[in-house]
Amino acid sequence: VGTGLVIIMTIGTLSFLVTTPEAWVPDLGSGEHGFPLLTGAGRLVIKDVCILASAVVVLADCAQRILKKQR
C-alpha cells in the first residue's frame, strides 16, 4: 500500500515538468532554452525519477514475496 502511494505521489510531482512552464529554461536570447534544459525547480523535480524507480523495485519485491507465500 505504501509503495503504491509513493508511486502516485511521484507521478503527480513529475507532472509538474509538463504543466509548469517555469520548469524549463526560458528563451533569454542565447539560443539555449526549453527541453532538455531545466531550471532549479525542474532539477528539483527530477529526483522523483529515482524515487519512482525505487518504489517500483520495492513493489516488485513485495509482490514476489507475497506470491511465494501463497504457494
Order of helices and strands: HHH
Binned, the helix content reads 55-70%
Helix-strand makeup class:
mainly alpha
Number of extended strands: 0
Largest sheet: none
| Low-pLDDT residue intervals, each spanning 5 or more residues | none
Proportion of residues in extended strands: under 5%
> Number of helical runs?
3
Oligomer description: single chain
Distance between the termini: 22 Å
The radius of gyration computed from the alpha-carbon positions, rounded to a whole number of angstroms, is: 17 Å
Mean pLDDT, all residues:
83
User: Given the C-alpha coordinates, what overall shape results?
Assistant: rod-shaped
Describe this structure as you would to a colleague:
The protein has three helices and no strands. The chain is mainly alpha-helical. Helix 1 (2-14) runs antiparallel to helix 3. It is rod-shaped, with a radius of gyration of 17 Å. The relative contact order is 0.17.
Quick recap of the structure?
Helix content is 68%, strand content 0%. It is mainly alpha-helical and 71 residues long.
List keywords for this structure.
3 helices, mainly alpha, 71 residues
Record the SSE blueprint.
Layout (H helix, E strand, L loop, with lengths): L1 H13 L1 H4 L20 H31 L1
